[in-house]
């Protein structure tokens, strides 16, 4: 299967961001991509650098304007799209939600971000209620997609549960970057940890992993921090953690990658981690901490 990751910069002009996305989707489809993944909260700026009640006006229902417009595009091009939207569920209840659009333009399913960070420049708990749909793959014409979102990518339990539910591939729309005052060696450690953690999910579960990050600088409106330089590096890893393709850390790119989903069976025969898991001894994983 040929997949595409769209790594781009965003501005406060949402219409221009969406128009650029649509052009990139068309470009990827012209290169025969069947599955196209967009970055986290792709329609606008990453607004979680501050806590601003007016930002809730950007949220939309699902179905809604984005699923309708991108659905028409998916149907026209015959591609499966992975969107990332600010979902308004009802008054005062909002989620960070990934939506999978089938190639006929319909909604195949959605996933609400389960792990919500609350750190300087990433004040997501102000905006997003933790997801309540669990870790359930979404069935599509190109396979069962284990879609999660950004902060979820640090948790091996989440990746494992998606794999155990039959996901053919793990997909992470992402918005992560550096605070500009961090030293160069610290920035490198952060990026390396991000890549290593997700490649480890590929190895542990014998699956391809797709991580699509944004790039470019976005200022902090409050000026409390020096803003975020999103580090790009969107990538696809194979079932042994091998790096199949990787974008730069600072350029807009459409990453087109051929993957062979049948490798999951081949790799799991060689490395039978699911066979050897001691599920009878893992009960304490449901606890917050194990006391001495």
Q: Can you describe this structure?
A:
The protein has a single domain, classed as Carbon-nitrogen hydrolase (Nitrilase/N-carbamoyl-D-aminoacid amidohydrolase, 4-Layer Sandwich). Helix content is 25%, strand content 29%. Strands 5-4-3-2-1-17 form a six-stranded mixed β-sheet. It has a six-stranded mixed β-sheet with strand order 8-9-10-12-15-16, covered by helices on one side.
Question: Which key phrases capture this entry?
Answer:
single chain, alpha+beta, Nitrilase/N-carbamoyl-D-aminoacid amidohydrolase, 6-stranded mixed beta sheet, 6 helices, 17 strands, globular
Structural class label:
alpha+beta
Q: How much beta, percentage-wise? A: 25-35%
In whole angstroms, how far apart are the ends?
A: 48 Å
Largest sheet: 6 strands, mixed
Low-confidence stretches: none
The overall number of domains is 1
Architecture (CATH level 2) name: 4-Layer Sandwich
User: How are helices and strands ordered from N to C?
Assistant: EHEHEEEEEEEHEEHEEEEEEHH
Q: Please identify which CATH superfamily we are dealing with.
A: Carbon-nitrogen hydrolase
Mean pLDDT: 97
CATH fold name, please? Nitrilase/N-carbamoyl-D-aminoacid amidohydrolase
Helix amount, in percent? 25-40%
Assign an overall shape: globular
Radius of gyration: 18 Å
Let me know the number of strands.
Answer: 17
Number of distinct helices: 6
**How do the strands line up in the largest sheet?**
5-4-3-2-1-17
What top-tier CATH class fits best? Alpha Beta
